[in-house]
Description:
Elements: H1 9-25, H2 32-57, E1 61-67, E2 73-78, H3 85-109, H4 113-133, H5 138-157, H6 160-180, H7 182-185, E3 189-192, E4 195-198, H8 200-208, H9 212-243
Antiparallel strand pairs: 1-2, 3-4
Amino acid sequence: MQRVAPGSQAEQAGRLFIAAMLVVFAPQMPFGNYLIYPFMILGTWFHEMGHGLTALALGYDFERLLIYANGSGIAESRTPADISSLERAAIAAGGPLGPSLIGSALILASARRKLWQPALLGLAIIILASTVIWVRTTTGWVVLPATAAALGLLAWKGKPGLVRFALQFLGMLAALSMFLSWDYLFMESAVINGQLILSDTGAIEANLMLPHWFWALALIGMATLMIGASLKYALRENARSARWR
C-alpha cells in the first residue's frame, strides 16, 4: 500500500475529509449529540450573525441575537418601514450564506501556516465580542464564551497541526451547516421558540417573487461555489508549499 507523504495534497484532502465526516456523523455516535452540542450552537451563531451583519452592512441596527437551547435562533434588526424589498431579501439571504462565507474563509486560512493561529484567535475574539454586544439568551451566554475560551486556549497553546485541524473542522462545520439543515431551506415557514415565522427563503420569496424553493436552490448553488473555490485554493496552496519543502 502506498504511503501518503506528510504535507502532500492527498494528506490535506484527507484531513478535510475527516473534518467533514466528523461534522456529519458525530451526532450519530454514542453521546455524539452531547459532544457536538457546542458546535451546533456555534452553527446557529454563524447563521444568525450572517443576518445581523448583513443588516449592519446595509446601514441598519443589529439589535440582538437570540440562541435557544434546542439550537434554533433569531437575529433581530431595526429597519425602517420603507426599507426596499431587495434589502429585506439580502438580510434574509445573509443567514444561509453567512456560514458558507465564514467557513470558506477559515478553510482558506488553513492553507497558510502563518494564518493558523491568528485566524483561530480572531474567531475566538469575535465570538466573545458578539456575545457581549448582541447575545441576549442564557444558552448563548453560557456556550459561546466557553467555546471562545477553548478556541483561544487552543490558538495560544495548541500544537500547529491541531490548530490547523481546528480551523479545518470549524471551516467545514460552517460551510456544511447550510446543507445539514437543507430541509429548513425548502420550508416556507418554520416554528421558532413557539412562533410561526417565515423561513429565510420564505422571506426572500415574499420580497422578490419566485417560489421559495427557487431561492433555496440559488443559495445552495452560491454556497457550493464558495466552498468549492476555497477547497480548491487550499489544496493547491498545500501542494505548492509541499513542493518547496
